[in-house]
Structure to design on (704 residues):
């Protein structure tokens, strides 16, 4: 499959890259568990970046690359669902949207205008203003919230369930790939200069080989994510998210281990990526649900004797 | 690339449907090496006659002049058709021919390329007992005496050397310069007096590797490729010759073998939610990632760009995924799977004879640059991590 970008796609991603660079800084003072930048959303909206997936000339492939790029930033804002899922749903426009499961806390729920409600077999929409939304204290590096009253939810047509499901998986996989790349880059920077036993830590094979393995896993997750974006196939989306969640599980362990005690402090930025990864590892049901989806959708399930 | 090459793909697919023997696997199970060689020769002649053996050669050779995108299609279709692999001729068609095309003299090209196209078999004499991953440590001597080099030494892990007509030999012509700079590349006639070949019996039951001993073997200077001392650089061209096509093919073959693995898993644990099925889902996902990684590597090469370390990622993801694949097969086959029942020649790595497959999978974690070497390359060239200190610096304490 050929993922080479057209000139139009390349241009818009170059522009996005320039915009992202202006948000690529971390305040030196304590910034809490999440580093939320609402102005990131405003800048993306102003630049027309939320339109990428909806434009025929651009589409989900560059949109997923845009989500991946934004996820590499130390700051966060609700971007992934607005870029990849909202274009499938009438009425929501570019307003912030959050996925919510009844009774559970969810990312960006307390700051979204729209809530995408999921139950076992369908998706519904409700305005956050009528859902009695509250903030939830969390150590995940996302703002978290809970909706208390979903009685007025409007369930979407059944025909939208599979496409929304696939786009959600794609959006989370794209975000995970960006987060993993950023967490790994920060760790490599650290172990390339930090000396112990008279040598940079990164010269020891015990560490460099594990970083190489992580790079291989991130690469595989990225290609599967881009394939899912290009095909729109639900099976490909399940594969992409399963592999990304698998890779994220290992990566979080490795980067924290290599960063040492400093990685466990809020003075370092590592947690901004790894604690987001941890939140996404259990999203969409986590690895178990993805495994079942992989078996069912990509390999025809199994013939139970 | 797809639409304009679709007729080419159809043409290849049709030809393979007509010419691949659907029973070749059964025929190659527990056969003698001689029968295997006969079958390989017959398959080579068929492929060669159809112009499918030398697509990567220049256009003035029959079947040559195919673009990398077309070559990729040929390999994808060979995998899709579950065709036998052309193991006996791989070194001849890729390593030998590509080295000659890139670095050989006109006279060498005129002499050897038509012979290779007609079925001449070549082997590779690079590795030695003390120069495996550390290839620059080669000790086999090539001493210039007038119009010949006199070769003394030993090579090892030389695939199919017992059948080879010629050998790509890397030997040390100088000890005075840096290790890499003292190597010279020779094209050796395997019938030259002083050469003896000893097949090595492997744990799989096969003996596809050999040792080659050189005892005062005289090689004409005209059979040197490049200049004296340029062997290291030419060897890099040899090793880069297949350009990722094999791993695209093998990854696809592994994906096609998933039903075989699934059947083995279900025979052991028919529960849809059983732990083995979950492991199967993990393996299947890793296989998909391996296919996508190999595919994108080649797509990037077709587009004319390749990142530092990309080839190592492809090799590493394939070898690691293969290990998990065959390990699950061995696990689910239980004690019955541990009996050595024989082996299949010319097949890819996932034959369903799990013990053989498991043992065979080490081929890919060791050969062609071990996993550890690949990880070092990725760490340094792709991730930009600092280089390991040289051992002599460590010994001096100068780090």
């Amino acid at each position: 499959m050929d993922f080479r970008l057209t000139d139009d796609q390349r241009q818009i991603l170059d522009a996005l890259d320039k915009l992202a660079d202006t948000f690529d800084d971390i305040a030196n003072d304590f910034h809490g568990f999440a580093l939320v930048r609402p102005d990131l959303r405003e800048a993306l909206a102003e630049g027309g970046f939320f339109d990428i997936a909806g434009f025929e000339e651009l589409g989900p492939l560059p949109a997923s690359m845009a989500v991946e790029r934004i996820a590499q930033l130390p700051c966060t804002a609700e971007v992934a669902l607005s870029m990849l899922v909202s274009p499938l749903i009438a009425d929501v426009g570019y307003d912030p949207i959050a996925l919510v499961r009844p009774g559970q806390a969810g990312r960006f729920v307390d700051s979204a205008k729209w809530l995408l409600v999921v139950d076992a077999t369908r998706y519904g929409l409700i305005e956050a203003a009528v859902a009695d939304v509250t903030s939830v204290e969390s150590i995940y590096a996302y703002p978290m919230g809970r909706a208390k009253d979903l009685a007025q939810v409007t369930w979407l047509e059944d025909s939208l369930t599979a496409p929304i499901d696939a786009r959600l998986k794609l959006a989370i996989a794209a975000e995970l790939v960006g987060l993993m790349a950023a967490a790994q880059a920060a760790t490599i920077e650290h172990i390339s200069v930090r000396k112990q036993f008279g040598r940079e830590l990164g010269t020891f094979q015990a560490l460099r080989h594990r970083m190489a393995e992580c790079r291989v896993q991130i690469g595989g997750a990225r290609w599967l994510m881009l394939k899912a974006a290009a095909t729109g196939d639900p099976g490909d989306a399940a594969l992409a998210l399963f592999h990304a969640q698998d890779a994220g599980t290992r990566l979080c362990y490795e980067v924290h281990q290599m960063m040492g005690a400093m990685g466990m402090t809020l003075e370092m930025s590592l947690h901004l990526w790894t604690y987001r990864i941890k939140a996404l590892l259990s999203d969409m049901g986590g690895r178990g649900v993805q495994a079942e989806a992989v078996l069912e959708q990509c390999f025809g399930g199994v013939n139970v004797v | 690339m797809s639409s304009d090459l679709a007729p080419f793909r159809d043409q290849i697919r049709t030809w393979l449907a007509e010419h691949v023997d659907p029973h070749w696997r059964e025929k190659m199970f527990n056969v003698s090496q001689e029968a295997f060689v006969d079958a390989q020769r017959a398959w080579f002649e068929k492929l060669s006659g159809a112009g499918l053996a030398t697509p990567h050669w220049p256009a003035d050779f029959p079947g040559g002049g195919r673009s990398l995108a077309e070559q990729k299609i040929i390999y994808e279709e060979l995998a899709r058709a579950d065709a036998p692999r052309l193991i006996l001729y791989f070194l001849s068609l890729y390593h030998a021919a590509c080295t000659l095309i890139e670095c050989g003299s006109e006279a060498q090209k005129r002499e050897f390329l038509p012979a290779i196209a007609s079925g001449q078999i070549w082997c590779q004499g690079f590795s030695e007992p003390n120069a495996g991953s550390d290839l620059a440590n080669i000790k086999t001597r090539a001493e210039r005496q007038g119009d010949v080099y006199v070769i003394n030494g030993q090579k090892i892990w030389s695939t199919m050397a017992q059948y080879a007509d010629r050998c790509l030999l890397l030997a040390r012509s100088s000890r005075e310069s840096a290790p890499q700079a003292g190597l010279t590349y020779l094209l050796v006639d395997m019938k030259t007096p002083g050469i003896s070949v000893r097949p090595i019996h492997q744990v799989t039951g096969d003996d596809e590797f050999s040792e080659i001993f050189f005892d005062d073997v005289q090689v004409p200077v005209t059979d040197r490729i490049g200049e004296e001392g340029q062997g290291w650089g030419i060897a890099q061209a040899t090793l880069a010759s297949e350009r990722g096509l094999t791993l695209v093919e093998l990854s696809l073959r592994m994906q096609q073998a998933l039903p075989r693995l699934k059947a083995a898993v279900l025979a052991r644990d028919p529960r849809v939610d059983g732990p083995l099925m979950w492991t199967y889902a993990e393996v299947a996902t890793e296989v998909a990632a391996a296919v996508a990684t190999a595919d994108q590597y080649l797509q990037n090469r077709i587009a004319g760009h390749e990142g530092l370390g990309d080839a190592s990622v492809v090799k590493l993801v394939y070898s690691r995924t293969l290990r998990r694949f065959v390990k699950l097969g061995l696990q689910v086959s239980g004690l019955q799977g541990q009996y050595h029942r024989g082996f299949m020649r010319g097949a890819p790595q996932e034959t369903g004879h799990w013990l053989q497959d498991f043992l065979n999978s080490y081929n890919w974690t060791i050969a062609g640059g071990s996993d550890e070497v690949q990880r070092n390359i990725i760490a340094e060239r792709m991730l930009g991590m600092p280089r390991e200190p040289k051992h002599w610096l460590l010994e001096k304490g100068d780090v």
User: Anything to note?
Assistant: The CA atoms of residues 159 and 209 of chain B lie 4 Å apart. Strands of chain B lie at 122-125, 141-145, 148-159, 166-172, 183-189, 195-200, 209-220, 224-225. The first strand of chain B starts at residue 122 and ends at 125.
